[in-house]
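Q: Hi! First time asking for a complex rather than a single chain. Here are the components, and I think there are two in total. Is that enough to go on?
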Amino acid sequence: MSQRTAPRASWSYTRFQQRFAPYLFVSPFFILFAVFGLFPLLFSLFLAFHFWSPLDGMGNWKFVGFENFGLALGPTDMFWKSLKNTLWIGLLSGIPQHLVALPLAFIIHHSLRRFQGTLSTVLFLPYITNAVAIAIVFATLYSERLGILNYLGGLVGLDPVRWLGDPNMVPYSVAAVVFWRYVGWNTVLYLSGLQAISEDVYEAATVDGANGWQKFWYITLPLLRPMMFYAFTLTIVGSMQLFEEPFMLLNDGGGSGGAGLTSAMHIFNTAFRDLDMGYASAMSWLLFLAIFAMSMLNNYLFSRDGGKK
Amino acid sequence: MTTTPAQRAAPGPRPRRARLPWQRVPIWALMLLACFLSVVPFYLMFVWASHPSAEVFTFPPHLWFGDAFISNWQGLMQVTDGQAPRQFWNSLYIALISTLTTLFFCSLAGYAFAMYDFRGKGALFGFILGTMLIPPLVMDIPSFLVMNNFLGWVGEPRALWVPGMANAFGIFLMRQYISSALPRELIEAARMDGATEFGIYRQVVLPLIRPILATLGVVTFVGAWNNFKGALIMKLSEPDTMTLPLSLRRLGGGATNVNVDWGAIMMLVVITVIPLLIVFLLASRQVISGLTSGAVKD
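A: Yes, that's all I need. Here is the structure of the assembled complex.
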């Protein structure tokens, strides 16, 4: 690694600081991580096997083994339901995100290249905005009696929809907001993936007589694979932790019937409202395992298909 | 990876059959629809913030601006007990100090990983990347406990910005940029001239990495400004610490109640979003290309 083998004799201040400067420069991260990352993680793992509230004070925890985990996975608690809600909302928002973003990026790249900068800026806008503020705007749109959506529906003769009141409707309403926020982000990701594909490949294919569809199927999609993997991973990890949108739209209980209660909200309530830190820690580790498993599945699907090509 | 679309499009029109204008109509219609849907919630929040509270919910809804901006501001001052400017300042303070510290520590570490050879470099960098695999959610409970039971920082702004002063993503982004944009000879030359190691970073490296500092700066600012869950957990809920997202939650939570001052709430929504729009629009190209270049390389 170190090509520079310093001759011991020529010790000097210059050489001394040259050797130690990089360690000094990277140390802030490691110090911060030790205090605010590693120690808390270990502490949370420890708590997952205990019954404890912060009100009990340090040291007064009671060892309960796997009881917390068993409770979360058992039939009495909301954890399973919240996990199902999270997955369902994640599918409802995640799949359309990519089904829309990919063609959008493709059209911009091939037909509207001159306006690429402007279009990406506009489509990227929802991504940087404040989730709480936007949730309030959407809640207004969703208002049952006076919202714009039901007004527009009424114009074409539809009955008012209880966007945030009907448990069957809630996952769609929440997913629509999530979709709105992230579809542009994915478009921009795919756009930069498309830009990285060399024109030469397409020209060679044209010479060989490939048509537009063949080019898309045999060139664009395979070469876009790394970017798709990256974008899918971000979507999975993000949707599994969904919190702010349902929390704002539906309050902390997740609306009527708890149809919008995500796992992140359930863990938040258990930890910071009920102050059951051990149990909440156990659930956060279970959610971590779920995220990990889904990422692995994504990884597996991509690498398996990649091997075939 | 560094070729911009402009450079790529430069060598003349591509060999492709010219399309008739009317064939482009569906494409344009689709794009305009996508842009319209992206922008319309922003438009509506400004429209609503400009109408009297009683008229935010009217039937049919307002689609054009009204003249109640001033009175809604006064309404906002009333429902927040005059704390709205203070809340704006709290959010700004946390976002700015997060941004400055993150830029400093991440660029310093990224520079070390890009330009030095030192024992354990690969392992240390691998470790940093590995920490990116931890979902932020898993950190919520333990970091609250550290703040609450060990440091006593709950309720203080530093509980939000101190842990984020250096992060894996920032270090990764900086290393990628520095190793591809700065030649090592430059560092050697400065060293020959007798500059100290930190002096090289400050006088040679920092000025040359402005573009990526802008990217990371905007991303950090936006993230810190928007940090709702963190503020909720660390209980920044006293008048002198409350941030804008918490204030929004307090006024507009469970937002289907019609009997609240909607004009004031929409004014607060606008105030929360405007700085984000300004910061992003000033640097959007840089932010987008900086973020996605990191993604492609990965």
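A: The CA atoms of residues 13 and 19 of chain A lie 10 Å apart. Let me know if you'd like any chain examined more closely.
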